[in-house]
Amino acid sequence: MKKLLSVSLLLALALSFVPVFSYAQEGLVPCGGETQPPCDACHVFKLINNIERFLLFPSPFNNGVPPVPAVAAIFLLIGGFYLLTAAGSPEKLQKAKTILAATIVGLIIVYGALLLLGAVLSSAGVAQWGDFRDWVKVECDVQFGPPSP
User: Membrane-spanning residues where (predicted)?
Assistant: First the structure.
């Protein structure tokens, strides 16, 4: 029973990341293509921003299902299930508390790292703070390297 539940959850998680439609208009970095400008140092920051948007927020990159909150929700459900079915067993109750605490601490670490990354990028002058969907908007016109003659 436990193995069937684990396999079912793993299969459901894997299938949730399969895109229904493939939209290939936009890449992770908007450079280097036939009709796109050549890549420069600014595009590295845009890549970092696109990766964090993919992992943490609903966006066209992840078909509206961000992996980090989805996995956290699954673990919160599992911890809640263990909590409800503990039936007075201290071992199961401790396991439920451990799962719930680890999930919450993990979310705090992930979103705290996002805030730290936003602070670093904004202090470097390549990003500015935005709204909920775009906490950090990378819009860098900063020229890196020596100026061209």
Answer: 68-87, 99-121
Q: What is the dihedral of CA 23, 29, 31, 34, to 10 degrees?
A: -30
Interval 58-102: pLDDT, tens: 777 677 788 899 999 999 999 999 999 988 889 999 999 999 999
Question: Which residues, at least 6 apart from 131, have a Cβ–Cβ distance to it below 8 Å?
Answer: none
Give the amino acid at 146. Answer: P
Q: Which residues pair with 136 in a beta bridge?
A: 129
- Domain limits of the chain? 37-138
Q: Which two tokens stand for residue 6?
A: 């684990």
The dihedral over CA atoms of 132, 130, 128, 112, expressed in degrees to the nearest 10, equals: -20
pLDDT digits (tens, 9 = 90+) for 36-65: 778 887 788 888 887 887 888 877 767 778
